Amino acid sequence: MSVHHIRNRRTAGTAAVLGTALALSACAGGTDAPVGEPETPSEPVDLRMTVWTADETQLDLFQSIADAYVAENPELVSSVKFETIPFEDYTTALTTQLAGGNAPDLAWIFESNAPEFVSSGALVDLRPVLEGTEGYAFDDLVPSALTLWEDGDGLYAYPFSNSPFAMFVNTDQIEAAGQPDPVDLVADGGWTFDAARDIAAATAEKSGKQGLVVRDFDYQSWENLATVWSGWKAAPWSADGTQCTFTDPAMVDAMTWFHDAVFTDAAMPAPGTTADFFAGDAAMTITQISRASALDDSFHWDIVPLPEGPAGKQNVVGQAGVGVFAAGEHPDVAADFLAYFTNAENAEQLAAYFPPPRQSLLNGDSLAAANPKLTADQLEAVVVQGVEDAVTKPAHKNFAKLSETVRAELDALWVEDADVEAVLTDTCAAITPLLED
């Protein structure tokens, strides 16, 4: 069986499981009623929170915060466990747990699935707990960061990570190829996608490695290409989620540019090629600031904002939320822990990897204090300015089904002689019924 068919079968199942799981989770414990002050249980409880990071440094930080909560609230909790699920399988595994009646108490949630989770009734309203927790400073949260996770007056997840996408560059490889430094191009106003493509192609030819990698795309997670097409002011569907816009001229131009960068210019890895920038396999990568933890001293590197496209510069953020499942065994205690985990003091610690939605912490000096691998100037340029007027990766209330359908249709694009416009036309034909659903 081909990889194409295996992938389609697996991901189509994901869409079905997500819808079923959320429905079952809502029926089992979903409610519009907010959770309140946790009642002291008959005996301390164990909490479980699913995450997709496997970074030991990050997990150690989470555990240290959780252990402090346990120490301060021994009558409520005996332990908090963080369960790592691989990134590529995360939503499938999480929703399988929900469908099987084994809901975690808390979970990270992708921004792309936010509308579906928020509208499902599977998550509890966190606003009363966060607003009512002494010292939480709810008003410090940036209102625009909450929008994706709100429904009416309710807030159904906390946006723990508001991480702008940026370009990490291997300055050793770029210098060895005699190419201009992207930092200088940023200063001179010449940092464009065309410039990045040309540098990537020339550097790859010189090094024998890869040029520019859109991390976590791998010709499967197509939504990560928002970091590219946003420079053309393109989008897969209209703002209200009802109309397909893959066939708009801006998207056709953006996807043509990407296709040519891969198959004509050899500036990007071809399908089936794995290249890890952080292992020295590529000259540049588009990814989020939290990936800086993977850097070591094996090569010299820098970080710059996303390039400008024909429509100018567009900031893109990846936003992940953490919510409490109503079908979990202890939603009130879980919500209380979440308020502790994300209070101002702990948000400052978490800012080392996950830019917080707190206005007081969104400045270069504060972020640099928590992130010694990056300077205040780098963080100011990439993170603080990167959240200004930013767009998120695609999200939709029917995203699970849309994601798999788009991925299947775009498979036809990843060959050298693809007709880009025809593939995008077919994509619109396939997803329009799902947008109207």
Automatic annotation (TrEMBL):
Xref: CDD domains: PBP2_TMBP_like (cd13585)
Record Pfam families: SBP_bac_8
Signal peptide: 1-28
Keyword Cell membrane among record annotations: no
Domain of life: Bacteria
Keywords (A to Z) from UniProt: Signal, Transport
InterPro entries per the UniProt record, alphabetical: Bact_solute-bd_prot1, SBP
Keyword Ligase: no
Localization terms from the record: Cell envelope
Family designation: Belongs to the bacterial solute-binding protein 1 family.
PANTHER family: ARABINOSE-BINDING PROTEIN-RELATED, SN-GLYCEROL-3-PHOSPHATE-BINDING PERIPLASMIC PROTEIN UGPB
Record protein name field: ABC transporter substrate-binding protein
Organism: Promicromonospora kroppenstedtii
